[in-house]
Amino acid sequence: MRFMIIVPATARSEAGGLPTEAELAAMTDYNEELLRAGVLVGGEGLHPTSRGARFDFGPDGEVTVTDGPFAEAKELIAGFTLIDVSSRDEAVEWVRKWPRIGGEEGFALELRQVFAAEDFGAELTPELQEREAQMRAATGATAPQS
After folding, report:
1. Hey, where are the domains in the chain?
2. Could you give the CA distance from residue 11 to residue 43 in angstroms, rounded to a whole number?
3. How crowded is the C-beta side of 52, counted as CA atoms within 13 Å?
4. One Pfam family, short name please (predicted)?
């Protein structure tokens, strides 16, 4: 089962503030622990929304592009870690081990399960599954573990 640990944006991250050396070291230690346990799939930090854009697709097919920054920092994402574990309980335990970084204001994380092929039922036909497998092979991505 794959899970994404979502790191919400903060005023600091949206202002372009970078982690301190101590924060980077703590995250590196955590990521190495995930790697040694064989559950780390990947993870990245994201630049602030001031360097991004939002795309709204209207019902008429028109696309509206809005350059960042975006106002609602509490709804924005600053980064993520993707893990592949045997259960939701195991994912929760990994989130509990997350480094206590981010200053005195504290922080929140969000845990979300990533869809797997079997979650889609009969609508994900064998032909579509094969196309998905071909795309993963072409990008070098590995198939998720069930």
Report:
1. 2-114, 117-146
2. 21
3. 14
4. YCII
Question: Does 99 sit behind a cis peptide bond, omega within 30 degrees of 0 on the bond before it?
Answer: no
Q: Are 30 and 97 in contact (CB under 8 A)?
A: yes
- Give, for all 146 residues of the chain, the pLDDT tens digit: 999 999 999 888 999 999 999 999 999 999 999 999 999 999 999 999 999 999 999 999 999 999 999 877 668 999 999 999 999 999 999 999 999 886 666 788 999 999 998 899 999 999 999 999 899 899 887 666 55
pTM score, two decimals?
A: 0.86
Which residues, 6+ apart, have CB-to-CB distance to 68 below 8 Å? 48, 49, 50, 51, 52, 53, 54
Domain range 2-114, its CATH number among 3.30.70.1060, 3.20.20.70, 3.50.50.60, 3.40.50.960: 3.30.70.1060
* Residue 46 burial class via C-beta count within 10 angstroms: exposed 0-12, middle 13-18, buried 19 and up: middle
Phi, psi of 113 (to 5 degrees): -75, 140
